[in-house]
Amino acid sequence: MDRIPVCIRADDPISQLGVTTELRPRPEVRVLGADETDEARVAVIVTGAVTAETPRVLRSVAARMSEARLVLVTPEIEEADLVPVVEAGVMGVVRRRDATAERLVKVLQSAAAGEGAVPPDLLGRLLDQVGRVQRQVLRPRGLNFNDLTEREAQVLRLAAEGFDTDEIAAAVAYSARTVKQVLHDFQNRFQLRNRCHAVAYAMRNGLI
Predict the structure, then answer these.
(1) For the chain, what percentages of helix, strand and coil (3-state, to nearest 5) are there?
(2) DSSP letter at 140?
(3) Residue of 81, 80, 117 lying closest to 195 (CA atoms)
(4) Measured CA angle at 187 (ends 186, 189), to 5 deg
(5) Which of 201, 125, 186, 117 is nearest to 155 (CA)?
(6) What is the Cα–Cα distance from 125 to 63, expressed in whole angstroms?
(7) Are strands 42-46 and 69-74 parallel, antiparallel or unpaired?
(8) Could you give the 3-state DSSP secondary structure of residue 135?
(9) Contacts of 164 (CB under 8 A, 6+ apart)
C-alpha cells in the first residue's frame, strides 16, 4: 500500500497529540515528524475556531508546503467561512466531532487524490443559499452568470453534493475519464486550483 505522507499542525499541543495518536497506527498514512514536512502530500490543520485570520494562516501553510493538499479540522464552520478557506487552499473539511480515525483517513485519501471532501449538510445549506440569491436577486434583474454547458453544470452540482468521480459518472452516464476532463477543463478556464476550489467558485458566482 502506498502510504500517504501526512504532517499535522495544530493550534495547541493536546490537539496535535490527539490527531497524531488517531492517525499514527493507520496503515494508509505515514505521520511525518517536524523535520519531514517537505515530504507531505497532505497537511492536516487543526484549529479551535475558524476566524478572519484562518485563511491567511492557511495560505501561509500552502505557500510553504506547495506540494501538500490541506485538510482543515475545526469544531464548527459556517457557510460564509467555507469559500474563503477553500480559496486559501483547503481541499477537505472535517468537524472535530466527526474526526474519527476512519473519517480522517477517508478525507486524507480524497485530498491526496485531488478530490475535495466537505460535510454534505454544509454544502446543502450553501446550495440553498445560492439558489435563493439566484431566484430573489439575479433573475428579477435579468441577470445570469451561468455560462456553463449543461454537462459542466451536472458534474459540478454532483461534486458539490459530495459525490466522488465514479459516483458522478454513474449518475450522469459518463465515463469517469469524461467527468475528470469536464472538471479539468472548467478549472483551467477559470484558473482554479482543484476540484474543491472549482465547486466553491461555481457556487460563489451563481453558476450552479
Answers:
(1) 55, 15, 30
(2) G
(3) 117
(4) 65
(5) 186
(6) 30
(7) parallel
(8) helix
(9) 110, 115
CA distances (Å), 156 to each of 144, 152, 160, 192, 204, in order?
17, 6, 6, 13, 13
Strands (E), 78-121: 90-95
Residue 137 has pLDDT above 70, yes or no: no
| Residue found under cell 451563481 | 206
Beta strands in the chain (DSSP E): 4-10, 29-31, 42-46, 69-74, 90-95
Inter-residue contact 106 to 124 (CB < 8 Å) = no
| Number of residues that make up the chain | 208
**Collapsing DSSP states into helix, strand and coil, what is residue 204?**
helix
Half-sphere exposure of 147 (CA within 13 A, CB side): 6
Q: How many whole angstroms separate alpha carbon 181 and alpha carbon 190? A: 14
Q: Which residue has the higher pLDDT, 43 or 172?
A: 43
Specify the pTM. Answer: 0.63
